[in-house]
Write a sequence for this structure.
């Protein structure tokens, strides 16, 4: 495995570089967009939900940002990862290289974007007078789970996309639905305890709520919560890995 | 000890309804029982072995299954039946000009391609100037790749690819790139590589080239193996007769 990684390291670096260059080609602001676009999104959400719907709660901006931070990373990573196989068909039909490299490369790119947004997030926390505690270090854990989760979903989606192009549209609708079910701009307090538990069936919500517990409430999430998000991440990763292993030599026929 | 052993390799392509139809069509056709998948054997029962230093020429008309066989040999495809056993490293130069990214510059594409072929970064840094000089693209390094002419593209592709030092080298129609001057240069380069002891597999439509360079010949016709052996001139003669319409090839029904 390590030998394999070494062997493909150069190729991987070049793929990452390529994805970066292609993404910011012909944009004046270039990488600044990574920071700007979540900020603008946040501004819109904040405007809508404080001015029009009049939600009065402490640290609402941070509350929103927590949800938005996690969700947009998930959304970007999976919907861009979806095309990683078909977009590179001209390469893997000619050269024998591990096909998951394309997805990993896309994920590196979105992860760096996420990192930049995270920095902005911390600046906002300061502005919103959030108290920083040592518990913030624990944020590494949900982020790690989220990375694995996104890779897993990306593997599954990119494989499905090879067989059925409809996935693209279905996924667009699905993520929209998921967004509304992830309690990004509302709280789940108004629901019955049972209903609140049901929210945790949504992996994205589970990750968001982990981040919120640390940042907003300064509490360490329960052990179950830790296990749950790791379980989601490993589950989709395992399914994705299995799909790639199974169809590794079959993708070729469909592109 | 043979360096490459291809034993009873058959490759089945699926054609028909499963491609490009989407979920709705898939389901409706499945329900109506109209979902059809046709099998198509691109290669059927191909067997041969190569020793170190052999130069194999694969000949056959279009659709004979040459490129598919090469994909199986290089490991891009798995044979449906049979097996391929390789000793040592393998480099396949298939359809060179494709697989580049039109939006990247020549320099970026050069590195990306080098990485795909399994070179190291150090090696690419050392060789980069040489590659550009060989491809004669000194003034185009920072240009987007899509602005190059198709001749330039294949020249660059060849220049990167010819640096390989594999045990087994697969060449699919790569000797016929560029204009006359470049072709001479590339043939010379290719002969150098072959001369260094690599086992080479060459697919070419140029019978003259095959007669001149190869030590063994594999003749495929519609996926079936017509002949394999080291009687290069004899097999080429018979192939030429078929091309001229003087000889009929009968293949088993599939």
């Amino acid at each position: 495995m390590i030998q394999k990684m070494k062997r493909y390291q150069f190729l991987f670096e070049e793929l990452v570089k390529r994805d970066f260059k292609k993404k910011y080609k012909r944009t004046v602001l270039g990488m600044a967009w990574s920071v700007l676009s979540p900020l603008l999104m946040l501004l819109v959400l904040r405007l809508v939900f404080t001015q029009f719907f009049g939600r009065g709660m402490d640290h609402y901006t941070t509350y929103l940002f927590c949800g938005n931070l996690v969700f947009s990373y998930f959304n970007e990573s999976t919907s861009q990862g979806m095309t990683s196989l078909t977009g590179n068909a001209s390469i893997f039909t000619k050269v024998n290289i591990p096909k998951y490299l394309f997805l990993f490369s896309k994920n590196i790119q979105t992860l760096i974007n996420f990192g930049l947004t995270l920095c902005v997030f911390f600046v906002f926390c300061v502005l919103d007078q959030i108290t920083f505690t040592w518990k913030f270090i624990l944020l590494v854990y949900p982020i790690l789970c989220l990375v694995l989760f996104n890779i897993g979903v990306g593997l599954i989606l990119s494989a499905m996309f090879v067989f059925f192009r409809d996935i693209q549209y279905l996924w667009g609708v699905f993520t929209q639905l998921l967004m509304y079910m992830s309690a990004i701009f509302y709280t789940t307090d108004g629901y019955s305890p049972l209903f609140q538990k049901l929210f945790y069936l949504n992996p994205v919500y589970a990750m968001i709520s982990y981040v919120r517990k640390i940042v907003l409430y300064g509490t360490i999430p329960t052990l179950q919560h830790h296990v749950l998000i790791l379980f989601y991440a490993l589950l989709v990763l395992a399914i994705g890995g299995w799909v790639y292993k199974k169809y590794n030599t079959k993708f070729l026929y469909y592109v | 000890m043979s360096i490459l052993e291809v034993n009873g390799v058959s490759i089945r392509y699926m054609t028909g309804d499963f491609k490009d139809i989407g979920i709705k069509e898939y389901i409706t056709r499945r329900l109506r029982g109209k979902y059809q998948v046709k099998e198509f054997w691109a290669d059927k029962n191909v067997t041969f072995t190569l020793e170190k230093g052999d130069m194999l020429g694969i000949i056959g008309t279009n659709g004979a299954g040459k490129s598919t066989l090469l994909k199986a040999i290089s490991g891009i495809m798995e044979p449906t039946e049979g097996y391929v056993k390789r000793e040592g490293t393998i480099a396949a130069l298939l359809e060179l000009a494709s697989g580049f990214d039109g939006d990247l510059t020549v320099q970026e594409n050069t590195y990306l391609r080098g990485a795909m072929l399994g070179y190291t970064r150090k090696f690419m840094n050392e060789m980069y100037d040489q590659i550009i000089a060989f491809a004669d693209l000194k003034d185009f390094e920072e240009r987007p790749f899509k602005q190059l002419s198709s001749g330039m593209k294949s020249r660059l592709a060849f220049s990167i690819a010819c640096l390989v030092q594999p045990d087994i080298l697969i060449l699919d129609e790569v000797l016929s790139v560029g204009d006359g001057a470049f072709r001479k240069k590339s043939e010379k380069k290719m002969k150098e590589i072959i001369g260094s002891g690599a086992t080479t597999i060459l697919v070419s439509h140029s019978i003259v080239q095959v007669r001149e360079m190869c030590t063994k010949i594999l003749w495929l016709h519609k996926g079936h193996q017509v002949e394999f052996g080291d009687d290069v001139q004899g097999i080429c003669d018979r192939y030429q007769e078929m091309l001229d319409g003087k000889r009929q090839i009968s293949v088993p029904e599939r």
Remarks:
- DSSP finds eleven helices and no strands in chain A.
- Chain A has a mean pLDDT of 88.
